[in-house]
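Re: [ENG-882] Designed sequences occasionally contain unexpected residues at chain ends

Forwarding the minimal case from QA. Structure tokens:
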């Protein structure tokens, strides 16, 4: 939906045949920026409607909803009409279902040569139908193996990082192909998206044979100190990436030595012991208040309610729902966050 000023994607029409998270998140980001997004749903609706109203709203605000049984002859004809009026179609289903239902560029180009067809799948449009839910992909791609304490089992982030990341990647691919002025197929997989986000870990292994390690407190592979630290009360994230940061931090915390990055990396254990001892003198909130004015990257570990309470500008209203808004801020444009559509609200 467009805001008071025409959004940067005003006039762009996008169809979505999506369920749950990755696809709907991609198109919602585009709808926030002014695109007209029509959600194509079966008679029973997107399965995420069954999770909760707030869950559905968090991924589908500002869209339209039409009910089309795309497996039927009449449904395919109706979808073809919509494709003829649209710039792009984004779908996230199993690859076999995408091909069987005719949701590829080859099947739909008869209606619109310039239609951009984006397929979000687990392992690629021709990568098979193996189950590819977010947590499964995180395990398969090496994310879980890097997460958690080395003395414990591998673990998973507490949110759907693979789905969200793939949604944003798919939105980028969709827009890139629209800008090209050509129709065509765009293929985005959860698995390859997550591999791409292991960029420097993968480069270290591929070029230097260095296998990534799971480190205590989520420590960074290269920078020291850059991890979570206990304090007198609560935990502090500290990220010292260069010698200037270290000099300022060390002066404030009363830590001597380790002036050079190479020295800190080589003497990791000693550095972490010294920093841990120094941070025990104050609370996480206290250290944040002391270090941030000095330009040191530091933050007390907060839970989501605390983060939302301290970020009122990030919260928007869409109909009856309070949601986290679009993180893309564009001069002169304020999104008009519309409510999520009722099932079939725009059938006519």
């Amino acid at each position: 939906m467009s805001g008071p000023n025409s959004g940067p994607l005003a006039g762009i029409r996008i169809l979505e045949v999506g369920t749950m998270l990755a696809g709907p998140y991609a198109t919602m980001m585009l709808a926030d920026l002014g695109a007209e997004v029509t959600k194509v749903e079966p008679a029973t609706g997107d399965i995420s409607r069954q999770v909760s109203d707030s869950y559905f709203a968090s991924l589908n605000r500002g869209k339209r909803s039409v009910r089309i049984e795309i497996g039927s002859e009449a449904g395919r004809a109706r979808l073809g009409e919509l494709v003829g009026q649209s710039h792009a179609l984004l779908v996230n289903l199993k690859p076999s279902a995408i091909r069987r239902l005719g949701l590829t560029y080859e099947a739909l180009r008869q209606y619109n040569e310039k239609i951009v067809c984006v397929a979000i799948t687990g392992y690629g449009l021709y990568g098979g139908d193996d189950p590819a839910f977010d947590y499964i992909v995180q395990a398969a791609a090496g994310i879980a193996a890097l997460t958690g304490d080395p003395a414990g089992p591998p673990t998973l982030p507490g949110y759907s990082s693979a789905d969200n990341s793939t949604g944003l990647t798919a939105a980028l691919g969709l827009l890139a192909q629209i800008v090209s002025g050509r129709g065509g197929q765009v293929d985005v997989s959860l698995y390859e998206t997550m591999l791409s986000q292991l960029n420097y870990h993968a480069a270290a292994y591929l070029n230097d044979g260095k296998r990534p390690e799971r480190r205590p407190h989520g420590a960074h592979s290269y920078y020291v100190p850059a991890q979570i630290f206990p304090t007198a009360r609560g935990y502090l994230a500290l990220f010292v990436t260069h010698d200037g940061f270290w000099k300022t931090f060390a002066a404030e915390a009363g830590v001597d030595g380790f002036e050079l990055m190479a020295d800190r990396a080589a003497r990791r254990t000693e550095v972490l012991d010294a920093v841990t001892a120094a941070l025990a003198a104050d609370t996480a909130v206290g250290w944040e208040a002391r270090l941030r004015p000095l330009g040191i990257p530091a933050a007390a570990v907060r839970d989501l309610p605390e983060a939302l309470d301290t970020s009122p500008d990030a919260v928007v209203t869409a109909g009856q729902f309070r949601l986290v808004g679009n993180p893309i801020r564009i001069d002169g444009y304020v999104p008009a966050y519309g409510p999520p559509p009722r099932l079939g609200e725009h059938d006519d």
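QA comment: On inspection the terminal residues look reasonable. The first strand starts at residue 13 and ends at 17. Proposing we downgrade this to a documentation issue.
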